[in-house]
């Protein structure tokens, strides 16, 4: 038995079927085949269970040039990243299995569903072979087959909601949700759980990893191996309490959220290094405003 061949038969849905469906069934899982023609930058996230994970959006295209965003989570991100090198000239054909469709503000995309979903990358399946054979009939091109899309880290909340890559939920819905994935929750910050000197940390200047102590007169990152004489200053993840009145007859709700460096910088309007610099660099005495 070929271990790469799925035990269950594929139930394929075409990209146009997903894009033009009158109603999206949240419980419906399906399969889809396509060529990866676009990629966004991967993002780190923390699940509602406190588990660190990853998220990556790729663009799938069928043989008729229809395209749809596909969001991958967790181990699938690690599986596909080595195949997304810059300047790739060969087609990257994937079969996404047991995925679900989401739609927000008229935009439809697909995403993996817990640990059920599977990702088959350039697998020797008859569906993939047939897809590739049709692609090979096209005129050859020296252009890269996978485009780098605009960085998601630069998206505004409005853009992320508009393109359908994240859902908007009430606090009650977020607390009761059993699904992993990015969501937006509207609310007002009413408290910040932060003490005098635990709102920042010293980080590698190449990646966000915390650096603890000097090696000689330089910092060394355990994650990427980069060494540097001066560490970057980043906001330590802090807990903030939010509450929001959803609607009068729905009542109110509250939730604790973990904010990372990017989000805290956006709220403060400046980087952690800038705050310390303006305070004269007195790290042990500074209070986060």
Automatic annotation (TrEMBL):
Lineage: Eukaryota, Viridiplantae, Streptophyta, Embryophyta, Tracheophyta
TM regions (residue ranges): 238-260
Replication factor A C-terminal domain boundaries: 186-280
Gene3D superfamilies, per database record: Nucleic acid-binding proteins
Pfam families: Rep_fac-A_C
Name of the molecule in the record: Replication factor A C-terminal domain-containing protein
Organism, as annotated: Arachis hypogaea
Domain of life, per lineage: Eukaryota
UniProt keyword terms in alphabetical order: Membrane, Transmembrane, Transmembrane helix
SUPFAM superfamilies from the UniProt entry: Nucleic acid-binding proteins (SSF50249)
């Amino acid at each position: 038995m070929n271990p790469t061949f799925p035990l269950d038969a594929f139930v394929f849905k075409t990209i146009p079927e997903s894009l033009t469906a009158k109603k999206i069934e949240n419980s419906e899982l399906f399969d889809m085949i396509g060529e990866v023609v676009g990629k966004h930058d991967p993002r780190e996230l923390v699940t509602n269970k406190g588990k660190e994970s990853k998220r990556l959006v790729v663009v799938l295209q069928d043989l008729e040039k229809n395209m749809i965003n596909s969001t991958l989570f967790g181990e699938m991100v690690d599986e596909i990243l080595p195949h997304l090198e810059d300047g790739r000239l060969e087609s990257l054909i994937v079969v996404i299995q047991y995925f679900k469709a989401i739609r927000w503000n008229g935009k439809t995309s697909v995403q993996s569903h817990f640990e059920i979903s599977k990702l088959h990358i350039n697998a020797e399946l008859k569906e993939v072979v047939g897809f590739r054979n049709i692609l090979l009939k096209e005129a050859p091109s020296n252009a890269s087959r996978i485009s780098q899309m605009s960085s998601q880290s630069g998206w505004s909340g409005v853009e992320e909601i508009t393109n359908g890559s994240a859902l908007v939920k009430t606090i009650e819905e977020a607390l009761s949700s059993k699904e992993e994935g990015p969501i937006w929750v509207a609310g007002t910050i009413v408290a910040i759980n932060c003490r005098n000197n635990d709102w920042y940390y010293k980080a590698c200047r190449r990646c966000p990893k915390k650096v603890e102590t000097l090696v000689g007169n330089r910092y060394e990152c355990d994650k990427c191996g980069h060494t540097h004489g001066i560490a970057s200053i980043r906001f330590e993840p802090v807990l903030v309490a939010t509450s929001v009145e959803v609607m009068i007859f729905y009542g109110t709700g509250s939730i604790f959220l973990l904010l990372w460096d990017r989000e805290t910088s956006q709220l403060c309007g400046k980087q952690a290094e800038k705050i310390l610099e303006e305070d004269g660099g007195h790290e042990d005495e500074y209070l986060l405003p």
